[in-house]
Design a protein that fits this description.
heterodimer; A: 240 residues; alpha/beta; OB fold (Dihydrolipoamide Acetyltransferase, E2P); 2 domains; 5-stranded mixed beta barrel; elongated; B: 331 residues; mainly alpha; two-stranded antiparallel sheet; 2% strand
């Protein structure tokens, strides 16, 4: 344990606090775990600053109790911690893109086990994308929703081989952190114009009515758009 | 460029979620190392082979250490004469069956309670069975490294070949304050008892930070592997491997051995594969990973002879394989 070790560990504390203060934590993990991360950030910074002070006041502090075998040479741990923290401090984490949503292939199948319990939102226009998808999972008959009003927000995904006036409006759903993010989405049919008007990854708010139609050879729920408004990407890109 | 961005987001999200748990783990294990004397537990542990194995496996609830902290504890207990079944049950079970690990697994798999229960249940089963098998060997000493075997007392139920002077310990001792004495062979891991209160707490912090440096480095390497596999391997390859009931389990057993992430945070590693691998395979990683990994082997070799380590891993690995495969096929 020397000054460089303490610096490397405190750099991670600073990084955790930076993510919190800049709001970038929302891109990385579920809000339930913010307190854990923030607490760890303070603890890391506090512990290392205090140990640095102790060391400076009374040099020649004892080394750790040797735990036996070591996997990494001592300098590696310090180097890895410090270098990744520096990268983290420089790079701004970005939410996943429409490309990731497409590649996961989950926009169509909806095979994911969704939470067992949820409270259905009774007013259709107040349902978010994930509310719609959960509802469809529970009661998949698309005709049941025909004619219902809808207002959803999400980003644009252009699946290949779609009709010219169709795109997907999608969001990522997160239960723990970005590592388990999976996309949910609805096909959107425009009444006029082509879907390519809106570039992939553009954030939109779409108001319209639910209808049924053919998607990849299956009868599915489709959102007929009446009004499409471009919006700013939300600070918190995920749904939960 | 997009792939790199995705990889970085994945990498940092896993680390940000995992580091609080790692910090908690090293703090607990350091406090334990310096303040708790597990010898006190010896009196209450059952000596029956099966009961001992169960007790050893759930001992982790009282001594929450990850796989890196439990080998020194096991070594200490073995030299004090705990039965083999307890020691082996503890080595295999404790890294998983303890509050911090169960909590972090629950955080990662909040949606799939089966993963949490499955992890605890299967680990308990494997640890108890292997511990039970090892208890057939009444005298563990031929399995142990000579340095450990030397300080270990002979098993209790074995007739003594030479008369032993029970109340009169022999050898070299360190004299402690208060008229106590510490056998010379045990000072390696008992040195902290020579310290003052303040000195011991200072050792706790130094030890925790040192472990954090070491385990943090391993965690970063493991997370980089997870992110790289996710981003740079073609999706068809991952799905092809991850959806087969046998191939997925084998792949995860290998990953669990190679990727030596601490058990307090390995649930997050598994989580990044949740979309593409079978549930049985993820469980295989979560059960077998903490029992054996590259770091664990080098630690275990400080206690056991190589052949005993091999038996331990083969048995645990095969059991995990059969159980999780059965889960994939029949559940």
């Amino acid at each position: 344990m020397n000054g460089l070790d303490l610096l490397a560990i405190s750099a991670w504390g600073v990084l955790l606090l930076k993510y919190w203060l800049t709001g970038q934590l929302a891109v990385l993990i579920h809000p339930n775990y913010f307190p854990l991360t923030v607490g760890a950030g303070f603890l890391l910074v506090g512990l290392t600053v205090w140990q640095g002070w102790v060391r400076w006041r009374e040099p020649g502090q004892p080394q750790a109790v040797a735990p036996g075998g070591q996997l990494l040479p001592r300098s590696w741990g310090r180097f890895l911690l410090l270098s990744t923290a520096v990268v983290g401090l420089i790079v701004t984490p970005r939410p996943f893109t429409s490309q990731v949503a497409l590649e996961s292939g989950e926009l169509w199948n909806m095979t994911r086990t969704l939470p067992q319990q949820f409270r259905p939102v009774s007013r259709p226009e107040e349902r978010s994308l994930v509310d719609w998808v959960r509802l469809l999972n529970t009661y998949p008959e698309p005709d049941a929703y025909q004619g219902q009003k809808a207002k959803v927000q999400g980003f644009v995904v252009h699946p290949p081989e779609s009709p010219v006036n169709r795109f997907f409006i999608a969001r990522f759903v997160v239960t723990c952190c970005a590592a388990d993010a999976y996309p949910v989405g609805l096909p959107v049919d425009m009444r006029e114009g082509t879907a390519q008007t809106y570039k992939a990854d553009t954030w939109l708010e779409i108001q319209g009515q639910m209808a049924t139609g053919q998607v990849k050879g299956q009868r599915r729920l489709i959102l007929k758009a009446d009004k499409i408004t471009p919006i700013k990407p939300p600070a918190n890109p995920y749904l939960y | 460029m997009a792939a790199l961005q995705q990889g970085l987001t994945l990498f940092f999200s896993l680390l940000v979620e995992a580091i609080p748990f790692l910090l908690l783990g090293v703090l607990f294990s350091s406090i334990l190392l310096l303040w708790v004397e597990p010898e006190q537990l010896l009196k209450i542990l059952p000596r029956h082979p099966l009961g001992g194995a169960v007790a050893g496996a759930v001992l982790g609830c009282l001594l929450p250490v990850c796989e890196c902290g439990n080998v020194p504890v096991a070594r200490r207990l073995l030299t004090q004469g705990i039965p083999a079944s307890v020691a082996v049950g503890f080595l295999l079970g404790a890294p998983t069956i303890n509050p911090i690990v169960i909590w972090s697994t629950w955080v990662a798999f909040r949606d799939q309670p089966l993963m949490v229960w499955g992890r605890v249940g299967l680990t308990l089963l494997v640890a108890v069975v292997v511990g039970w098998v090892f208890s057939v060997q009444k005298d563990l000493r031929p399995f142990l490294q000579p340095a450990v075997a030397q300080v270990m007392p002979p098993p209790m139920n074995q007739p003594q070949r030479e008369p032993m002077l029970a109340g009169v310990p022999t050898g070299n001792f360190f004299a402690l304050s208060g008229g106590k004495a510490l056998p010379l062979e045990t000072t390696g891991w008992n040195a902290s008892r020579l310290l003052s209160r303040r000195g011991r707490w200072q050792m706790v912090w130094v030890n925790a930070l040192t472990e954090l440096r070491e385990l943090g480095g391993v965690l970063i390497l493991g997370t980089a592997v997870a992110a790289a596999i996710q981003v740079f391997t073609p999706r068809e390859v991952i799905l092809g491997l991850g959806q087969g009931p046998v191939t997925s389990v084998v792949a995860m057993l290998v990953l669990g051995t190679v990727v030596s992430i601490c058990s307090t945070v390995d649930a997050f590693f598994a989580l990044s594969f949740a979309g593409s691998f079978t549930a049985g395979a993820l469980l295989a990683f979560l059960v077998f990973g903490p029992m054996v990994d590259l770091k664990g082997v080098s630690l275990l070799l400080t206690v056991f002879r190589p052949r005993a380590v091999l038996y331990l891993f083969l048995l645990a690995g095969l059991l995990t394989f059969v159980l999780t495969l059965a889960m994939n096929l029949y559940l």
